[in-house]
Protein 1
Amino acid sequence: MHAYALVLFLHLLGLLTAAAAAALAFFAALQLRAAATTAEIARWARLTKAVVPAFPVATLLLLGSGAYLTQVGWGWTTPWIDAGIAGLALIVACGSGIEASRGRALEQEVRTAGMTARARALQRDPLAWSAKVTTLTLTLGVVFLMVIKPATLGSTLTLIVALVAGPLAAVPFWRSHDRVEQPVAERPLAASAPAPRTEG
Ligand code: HEM
């Protein structure tokens, strides 16, 4: 068996690991966004924390195997490879930088003060959601780069499109959603109680 093909398999294993973890993390993020109680926040934050360790493993797998493939078959000045490395760095910055720090802020707020207005704002934080969706558009962009292998202009444009598309696609997730804002348990009882009888 050719070593190059085996390493390419490991490279794709890294991509599959990242994709599976990203799907679970996105599901957890949607549940966190809709959570109405501190218990729900804690529950979905636990799923996020369980999934997060898969990301550095996937990153190292992609980077290590990618470095071998580059060294053996392509060279380090190949435009789509350099753009791929930049894309991976941006994914890490968005995910474990911006998004993770906003997630920690939400958890901290809920733990110390409960479901405050700030906590509800953090559930729909524009920066966190833009960073999250941008990790997905960048991943798609890097897959495009690796498969199509464009020249410098095409590689640069691919990254730019991914960086613009991410925050745009995130808008529906950070827009206000009144139905979610008012926790059911905190609704005034009078709102759901039947009207008093006035006969007699
Ligand atoms: C988010 C990160 C990455 C993703 C999603 C990704 C995805 C892929 C995919 C899907 C392929 C298969 C392409 C094909 O067979 O046509 C591939 C191949 C390859 N990748 Fe990556 N990759 C990533 C990061 C990297 C990095 C950081 C490097 C370099 C350090 C790299 C170097 C390569 C090389 C050299 C190939 C072999 C291309 C070939 O032989 O046709 N990749 N990658």
Protein 2
Amino acid sequence: MKQLTSEMIKKRAAELGAQVCGIGSLELFEGEIPGRDPKMILPGAKAIIGFGFSVPRGLYESMERGAAYYAYTTLGVKYIDEELAEIFLLKMGGMIEDCGYDACLQKAVPNLRIKGDSETNPEVKDTYELSNAVPVSPGKPAPDVIIDFGLAAKACGIGAPGRYGKPLSPKYGPYIRYCFIITDAPLVTDEPLTDSICDGCGLCESACPGHAISDGKLDSWQCSVYYKGAHRSNPFMTDDFLAGDPEREAILNGEKRFDAKSAREIYPKLNFLPQTQWGYAPCLCGRKCDIVCYRHLRETHRI
Ligand code: SF4
Ligand code: SF4
């Protein structure tokens, strides 16, 4: 084994472009269901390393001005998660494994849900629940094991879920995306984030054109419909969208409630801009929840 320290990992992460890095113990995962347990991915795991890449403010502000929507989807979502984070993780993983330890790389898995998770991810065309997966032997979880990124960010001290579920960073608020490495390296760990960054102001709730956040919770199916543009403030909305549908007004006003079935029924009609590679849907709500949250956290000096 070669020497590998937490300082070495953080220094290399910064050199490779991560703006945020924290190393967490696995204590917060005790009691986690097997399908989300890091130890089911790496039985000898001792730590989880979290990294964050900020999403430039200008990408949000361009959507708010109604000037450019596609750049956020391609650069702020797809590129960070599908290219930047992947290359970064492979390089970081190589460094850890060259020192003789295991590195299980965890990027976002946008379109898969573990068995029993009936939520969805609004950022992609659709999601698939692994409802037919079965364990390969007794005592093992049904594949794929997908860790909870909100809990992982908290364990690493780099984020904590806010009112609408998104992990908020102490430095960048909601303008950040995360990836992780589970390792058996005996690293010195940071403290988990115990203070909540979210103060429950409720601004995210009133900003959403689809009323997808209520009672402190995000309705992911409702969000998925309005993220894809079924609201009046979508600049690509046309007069013939849902023409003749008696529910058109209620839908455009964000008053109709969608579930998995009705959301999937309307998706084919939400063709305002092309999908990107890997099934990322164009963001046409402008991520108003993130924008008001970010500004509120800055104004109140919480970030
Ligand atoms: S807008 Fe307010 S309530 Fe919503 S996540 Fe941000 S801080 Fe929390
Ligand atoms: S503003 Fe957009 S991303 Fe936020 S909850 Fe509403 S639909 Fe979802």
